[in-house]
Design brief:
173 residues, electron transfer activity, FMN binding, 6 strands, KefG/KefF, alpha/beta, Flavodoxin_fold, Flavoprotein-like_sf, Rossmann fold, six-stranded parallel sheet, 39% helix
């Protein structure tokens, strides 16, 4: 299941391209949080049922200010509840895979000790990795598309192809 969150989806060439390829794939569910919860009032029980129905979870979003759009944070806060996703008796997510699929506006070389962003993407995504670990999920390497606003149509097609291959890898092990 792709948990998709982009507050201005129609303006995003990269996220539209990635989502379009995923929509054409069998065995992939796309759950758009901004479409479903424009009012930010998340139906926790419905979200938990969706999670129980899927073995692979992909949080897909633009990388805003070293994090995710606010609806992702709200979703994490209310859906991954103590006693359900983690903590005493919280094993509902145990064994599922968790992957972040993010787009950035900056070039890959800007993410590292010598770059303007100072830290690698792996370091910046650590809070998500820690959340996955707490929920007993199997963390998978993130799928990152850099320089998304400057991508040529060919580079965008290549990124979409690579994203489809990553999803196929999850589906077929």
């Amino acid at each position: 299941m792709i948990i998709f969150a982009h507050p201005s989806y129609l303006r995003s060439r990269a996220n539209r391209a990635l989502r379009a390829v995923a929509e054409r794939m069998d065995h992939v569910t796309i759950h758009d949080l901004y479409e479903t919860y424009a009012d930010f009032l998340i139906d926790v029980e419905a979200e938990q049922r969706l999670l129980l129905d899927h073995d692979h979870i992909v949080l897909m979003h633009p990388f805003f200010w070293y994090s995710a759009p606010p609806l992702i944070k709200e979703w994490l806060d209310v859906v991954l509840d103590y006693g359900w996703a983690y903590g005493e008796g919280g094993t509902a997510m145990a064994g599922k895979t968790w992957t972040q699929a993010v787009t950035t506006g900056s070039a890959a070389h800007t993410y590292g000790p010598e770059g303007s962003n100072r830290f690698t993407m792996e370091e910046l995504l650590r809070p998500f990795e820690a959340t996955a670990h707490l929920c007993q999920c199997r963390w998978q390497p993130p799928f990152v598309v850099h320089s998304s606003r400057q991508m040529t149509p060919d580079a965008l097609a290549d990124a979409a192809h690579d994203f489809a291959a990553m999803l196929e890898g999850l589906i077929h092990g």
